[in-house]
Amino acid sequence: MNANQFLKAVSQLQGWRECAFLLALAERSFPNYALFADAMGLKTGAKMRQLLDLGWDLLQKDVSESAIPQLLAKLETLSPDVDAYDAYGVYPAFDFCQLLEQALLNRLNPSKHRATDASQMATGTVMNFIELSEGEDLEEDELVRLLDHHPLMKEDKTFQRNLILELKRQRTPTDQFVARLREDAANEGVSNLGISLTE
Fold this sequence. Notes:
This protein is mainly α and 199 residues long. Helix content is 71%, strand content 0%. The protein has helices at residues 3-11, 15-39, 45-60, 67-78, 90-108, 115-134, 140-149, 151-169, 175-186.
């Protein structure tokens, strides 16, 4: 699947597949939030985990319209204000919140396409991290090369492409399929930035 085929496939996602795609992106970036919250002494990691779990539950259940705004309101209270922190970690943490928000909004308004922006946002989190950690004094062409060949970028691309292929092949969101999707996305607690909850 080349870049154009991938973009086309993402743009064609709809219904439960689009929601699952958004949730899987959020799941992969959850450690970025949890580690930031932990580092800042915020007691929000477990609450956010519950919220993400509820998001996954919504994938297979018919959900009342009134439940989603409550979840969105809760998400807002748990989202960090990027201007309030000096630490770089606030940005990947906030990106996670944005991805989860898109997944919840998808259930509220399924007709609005969100997967393309979310896919780019998730990749953007990785690009910004690499640029900040390894690309500071590089010329633009060197930076492009660094990003092209960086293992984290390759992993992000592979993860998103495999996710799309899995979703295209699956006819209905069975319990086993969703459980496998979640497990793959969780990546044993290692986020899209290669940082781990267990270290």
